[in-house]
Design brief:
Elements (H helix, E strand, L loop, with lengths): L11 H11 L4 E5 L3 E4 H17 L7 E5 L5 H13 L3 E4 L6 H11 L1 E6 L1 H8 L13 E4 L22 E4 H4 L16 E6 L9 E5 L16 E5 L6 H12 L2 E5 L5 H11 L3 E4 L1 H8 L14 E4 L6 H10 L4 E4 L11 E2 L4 H4 L3 E5 L4 E5 L12 E6 L6 E2 L3 H7 E2 L2 E10 L5 E6 L3 E4 L2 E4 H9 L4 E11 L3 E10 L7 H9 L10 E4 L24
Parallel strand pairs: 1-11, 3-4, 3-5, 5-6, 6-7, 10-11, 10-12, 12-13, 13-14, 26-27
Antiparallel strand pairs: 1-2, 8-9, 9-19, 15-16, 16-22, 17-18, 18-21, 20-21, 21-22, 23-24, 25-26
C-alpha cells in the first residue's frame, strides 16, 4: 500500500518522506546526550515499523498508544511516524501516568495497540485487571531488550485469557524499509491528545490531519539550525516539535529532563537558533548562578508557552537574548492551529500581552451572555479558525459545551487592546470575586514576581465568611532570600489597589505542576483550609 488520498503533502508524515529524499544524511531529530536520527534513518525505520503494525492487524482509523519514557525519545518519534504511516491515529500517554489512568485512556480511545518500554511493560501486561477494561484485542509492542521467555503465556499470540498479546519491537519490524503509507483522508484522525486536566478530568482532543499543525508542509531550504525544547512528548507542544522544525529546515533537539545548567551549557556550545520554554523552566534558569553570565546570543526565537509569564521575566529574557524575538505565546490543545504570536519588539511595548492571532485565526472576548465586549474590558477569550474546529473524541456533550458556533470557549479571561493584541488575565476560575470586586490572579502574580526574592507564585481565591472569597498567595522564594508576608504585602501595595493584595500567604518549596508545566491551582486551597 502506498500513496494517500490527502496527497503527499496533506499529511505531516509526508514531510518526513520528502526530507528523507532531499536530505537523507541531515539530522532530523536529536536527543541531548542520547543520539540522533538522520532523516534517512527516521524514514527507513518508521516504514519498517509501519509495515509491521499493519501485519499485526493495525488498520486505517485504528488508535495506537505510545507509553514510552522521555529517555526513549528516538523510539518515540519513530513510533509516532510509523503509526501515521499505518493509517492509524496516535494516542500519546504521559510516562508518569498511573496504571488506572492509562487503562482508562486506552479504553476511552479504543486503542488496539500500545507501544511501551521496559519500565512500563509489567504494568501494561496487567491492564484490564482494574475497573477500566481496555479493548480485548490490545497488542503490546515493547522494547527489544525484554526477554519474552520471562513473560510465559502472556507472550503467546494464541494464549487465551492471558492479557494483551505481546510482541518485541524487533519482531514487529518488517524487513522492508521502503516508502509506505496507508491511504487516509484529511478528515481521518491523526492524534488523540489528552488534555492536562488542570480544570477537571482529562479529555481526549481529536486531532485530524486537516488541522494537525499551524505550520504547513513545504520544501524548505536546509539550514541545519537547531530548535531546542524540553516539552514532554505526550503534550501538544511535544508533539508539535516532531515535524514543525523540519518544515522550517531545522533540526529538533530534545532535552528529556530539563536541567537549567545543562540547558545553558548547550546553548553556549551548540548555539541553537530557537528555544521553547515554559514559565517553570524560565524560573529555574533565572535561579541558576550562571544565567547572567551565559552566552545566549545565538538565540533568535525564544518562545514561552503553556502559561502567562510576568512582564518582568520577559524583559529579563530579552536583555539576555538581545537579538531574539522573545514572546509569551498563547495556544491550547483544543485550539489546534489557532495561535497567538508576538512580533519582535512588541513584548516590551505591550507588557503582559501574548500577541495577535496568526491569520486566518480569530480571537474575541465576550461577556457572560456570549456578546462581544468593549475593547480593553475583560471577558472570556474565544478562538476559531473557520472550518478547522477540533472536538473531544467520543464526547459529543463536552464538544457542544466547549465549541459554540465554531468558536472555542477557552475558559480563559482576557482583553484585547485597540490594535488587537490579546492579554490573558488567567483562567475563569482564577477570577477572584472579593466582596463583589473582581481580582485577576495573573495581575497580582505579576506584581509579586517583580519582587527580587520571589521565584514563583500562585494566587488563588479562598473562602471567606463575609467577602465570599479572599485573595491568597502561595510563594516560592529564591535560594538565599528571606522575607515575610508583611514585606510582600507592602511591596504589592505600591502597584495594586488594597483589595487586590493577598491577605493570606503561604511559603512552599515548590508549586505542584502537571507534565506541561502548568501549576495545579486546584491543589492549593487545601493549604488554607481551617482545621
Amino acid at each position: 500500500m502506498s500513496g494517500s488520498k490527502a496527497g503527499r503533502f496533506g499529511l505531516q508524515v509526508g514531510q518526513l518522506a520528502s526530507m528523507a529524499e532531499l536530505f537523507p544524511d541531515a539530522i532530523g531529530y536529536r536527543v541531548m546526550g542520547a543520539g540522533h536520527l538522520t532523516f534517512g534513518q527516521w524514514e527507513h525505520r518508521s516504514n519498517r515499523l509501519a509495515r509491521g503494525l499493519s501485519a499485526a492487524g493495525v488498520g486505517r482509523g485504528d488508535r495506537v498508544a505510545i507509553w514510552l519514557s522521555a529517555d526513549s525519545a528516538l523510539r518515540w518519534v519513530i513510533a509516532y511516524a510509523a503509526i501515521h504511516k499505518a493509517g492509524a491515529a496516535v494516542v500519546p500517554l504521559d510516562p508518569r501516568l498511573a496504571l488506572p489512568e492509562v487503562a482508562s485512556m486506552l479504553a476511552h480511545a479504543g486503542a488496539v495497540a500500545l507501544v511501551a518500554d521496559d519500565e512500563r511493560v509489567e504494568s501494561a501486561l496487567s491492564i484490564g485487571a482494574g475497573d477500566s477494561e481496555p479493548p480485548a484485542t490490545l497488542t503490546l509492542v515493547v522494547d527489544a531488550s525484554v526477554d519474552p521467555g520471562t513473560r510465559a503465556a502472556a507472550w503467546s499470540p494464541d494464549a487465551e485469557g492471558a492479557g494483551p498479546r505481546c510482541r518485541s519491537w524487533v519482531d514487529v519490524l518488517d524487513d522492508d524499509g521502503t516508502s509506505y503509507q496507508v491511504a487516509v483522508d484529511e478528515e481521518d484522525l491523526s492524534d488523540i491528545l489528552f488534555t492536562s486536566g488542570t480544570t477537571g478530568h482529562p479529555k481526549g482532543v481529536a486531532v485530524r490531519h486537516a488541522n494537525a499543525s499551524a505550520v504547513p508542509n513545504s520544501v524548505p531550504s536546509w539550514s541545519g539550525s537547531l530548535w531546542l525544547h524540553a516539552s514532554p512528548l505526550a503534550t501538544f507542544a511535544g508533539v508539535s516539535f516532531v515535524y514543525s522544525p523540519m518544515k522550517l529546515g531545522m533540526t529538533s533537539v530534545y532535552q528529556p529532563h530539563f536541567d537549567p545548567g545543562q540547558w545553558l551549557g548547550f546553548v553556549e556550545t551548540e548555539a541553537p537558533l530557537a528555544v521553547f520554554l515554559v514559565p517553570a523552566m524560565v524560573q529555574l534558569l533565572f535561579g541558576h548562578p550562571h544565567f547572567d553570565q551565559a552566552d545566549l546570543s545565538s538565540v533568535r526565537v525564544c518562545a514561552v508557552g503553556s502559561a502567562p509569564l510576568a512582564p518582568a521575566a520577559i524583559d529579563r529574557l530579552q536583555k539576555r537574548m538581545p537579538d531574539a524575538l522573545v514572546s509569551n505565546n498563547y495556544g491550547m490543545t483544543e485550539a489546534g492551529s489557532v495561535y497567538c504570536l508576538m512580533p519582535k519588539g512588541e513584548a516590551v511595548r505591550r507588557p503582559g500581552s501574548v500577541g495577535k492571532p496568526l491569520p486566518p485565526a480569530e480571537v474575541r472576548c465576550v461577556d457572560g451572555d456570549g456578546r462581544e465586549i468593549t475593547t480593553g474590558e475583560y471577558g472570556e477569550v474565544r478562538l476559531r479558525i473557520p472550518g478547522r474546529q477540533r472536538e473531544y473524541f467520543g464526547d459529543p456533550e463536552a464538544t457542544s459545551a466547549t465549541w459554540v458556533d465554531g468558536w472555542l470557549r477557552t475558559g480563559d479571561i482576557g482583553r484585547l487592546d485597540a490594535d488587537g493584541y490579546l492579554y490573558i488575565g488567567g483562567r475563569a476560575k482564577d477570577v477572584i470575586i472579593r466582596g463583589g470586586s473582581n481580582v485577576y490572579a495573573v495581575d497580582v502574580e505579576h506584581v509579586i514576581l517583580s519582587h527580587p526574592g520571589i521565584a514563583e507564585v500562585a494566587v488563588i481565591g479562598v473562602p471567606h465568611d463575609v467577602l465570599g472569597e479572599d485573595v491568597a498567595a502561595v510563594v516560592v522564594l529564591r535560594p538565599g532570600w528571606e522575607t515575610d508576608a508583611e514585606a510582600l504585602r507592602q511591596h504589592c501595595l505600591v502597584s495594586l489597589a488594597a483589595y487586590k493584595v493577598p491577605r493570606r500567604w503561604e511559603f512552599v518549596d515548590e508549586l505542584p505542576r502537571n507534565p506541561a508545566g502548568k501549576v495545579l491551582k486546584q491543589q492549593l486551597p487545601a493549604r488554607f483550609a481551617v482545621t
